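Example 726, ligand alpha-D-galactopyranose.
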Amino acid sequence: MAISVENSVFHLETAHTLYQMKVDSFGILNHLWYGARTDCCMDYLLDYPDVGFAGNPYEAGNRRTYSLNSLPLEYAAGGAGDYRVPAVSVTHADGSGALDLRFREYRIRQGKYEIPGLPAVYAEDDEAETLEIILEDALSSVEISLLYGVLPGEDVITRAAIVKNNGNSGIKINRVHSLCMDIPRGEWEWIHFHGRHAMERQMERSPLIHGIQENGSTRGTSSHQQNPAVLLCEKGCTETNGFCMGAALMYSGGFQTQIERDQVDQVRWVMGINPDTFAWKLDPGECFHAPEVILSCSGQGMGELTHRFHHVIRHHVCRGEYKLSQRPVLINNWEATYFDFDDAKIERIAEQAAELGIDMLVLDDGWFGKRDDDMSGLGDWSVNETKLRGGLGRLIGRINEMGMKFGLWFEPEMVSEDSELYRQHPDWAIRIPGRNPVRGRYQLVLDMSRPEVVEHLYQVMSRMLRENHIEYVKWDMNRSICDWYTAKLPAERQAEMPHRYVLGLYQLLDRLTGEFPHVLFEGCSGGGGRFDAGMLYYCPQIWCSDNTDGHDRTLIQYGTSFFYPVSTVGAHVSAVPNHQTGRVTALGTRGTVAMAGTFGYELDLNMLSREEKEQVALQVKNYKAHQDLIHNGRYYRLSNPFEENGAAWAFVSEDRNKVLIQGVVFRAAANVLRMRLRLAGLKADAVYRSVQDGRTYTGQALMTGGILLPEIKGDDAAFEICLEEV
Ligand code: GLA
């Protein structure tokens, strides 16, 4: 039994972790523990200090030491004596805002719960158990169901919450977070991933200040600027040592993480939909479902935490036929042609790609409507026959004859003012009546909260997929959203729109991915602007960044790797000088870096020299030879490229008899010792032989003394070492 209850204590056990809560004599659900298994009740750690200006519930009488402001609460509500950041806050019909949440009942069931309309971790009934704890505010009859999905084999616990209004009058939900975790003791640091377009997920680690630290997005997407996945680690925690916890929100809209270090150095961590762009009117009898958060923790450092997230995302989040299978090596025409192409040009690129062993051609932006630049055409998803003479069917036929698959780019959620769709349905674009809409990349956003918009997109896209042999879809989204207003909702419900947009998006994705399981969907939002566990439920890979520079990509992919599996990271070799940075890196470097992902090319292969083409053919062969190890093996970060002179990583097969070490040394230097890398995750007593130079080492030596890199010349030079157990 992964879930058990004894003397009002809930035990949630996974292979290596324990999560504990307890209902106390006042009916308050206290958080006791999340960490290594202890095999005992951790309530002895509860403390009842008499802290000044901490109020006491009325029933506590003269017990000044019993305060909701100091206790570790499992799910904290605002307005009832706890002054830390709340997980949930509502406004009642009378305008008051307190929620006094007390335990009412619980249920345990086999299998993993689902969330209507939202992505969630899925599992077979024998792989997971669900605990539902119901808390209630007696006066208003507002009820909060806390959902816990326990996946013992994955060392993962998921959480979600449902607000239910059992009262007689409507309430407004001002915030409802999916995660609330109180941690009374320890010295903590948080790691989050910030960035910008073409430089996503830059890792930042900082000690917690007193007060609230926060990250989030109000852009309607999870965003380039912050990512909805955060780590909390004990000071000194490294890749291989120390305790850390991670939380990844399965949500692709605006989110918020807040971490508060309070007056007595306790920490509260909340995460969920961003309350700055959210409110929800809940009429009597209605429910609201908050999205899910995936939680894991590790006592063996961040590397182990990463393995747990990679595994659960690959096996219990990603879906569809491609979830665990080999991904096609693709050639994308975007950086090769931008908008300037016709069928002949695309065919020439495809012909060359086919010769070099590439599996699929992806036709990017510009194939539809009137689309010769980014100022028009979005919304008109029918082929532009001036560019593609003879239509899409003819082009796909030619590509298929070359032995290649065909994939196509869409940006379904958008509309250009200069488009047929906009001329027919100007009211479908998001804008506030009487105000000019904000434009982003010249375009407007379709109101995905409206069912007729979702239905239209479904009809248009499903027809395209039915009528053409399309085996891959790149689903792009190229601006942030604002001007939140929808003609379909009354004034008092307008604040629901950002979440309703996400629900509309998920509904469309669900219908299309459900109906076309053979199609590989790749997510994208100006590169990695919507790289989150929610999108991964529909798209098993996401274009990681519009920045394809071999150097910058090592930093972007390093940050991405903490939570997201290598098989989800779209990574392509592009031309030099790089189109985003102007930097020149060697073809070998670009190839090595792109191998740590779902591999492909994004350049005109016809422009390469004969030697370069030969090198590309070898890269494709090398990637295919290692793809199983890269996607199914364990991924180890061997250096921190933000602090060290290089990025290094390794893939170790599940049976630990094969290792692929790769990386890039940033700055070359004269008269220096060769770089040394200490490996991890090997069999200590096994002997490994280097495929490159035949040298043998014991696993123990490689994990303690490390391995020396070959001598490296030139900046941003890549290396690769393969080891096999003898
Ligand atoms: C975004 C994507 C690119 C490309 C362009 C096309 O920026 O991230 O890969 O598809 O749009 O307009």
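Summary: Residues 275 and 686 are 53 Å apart (CA to CA).
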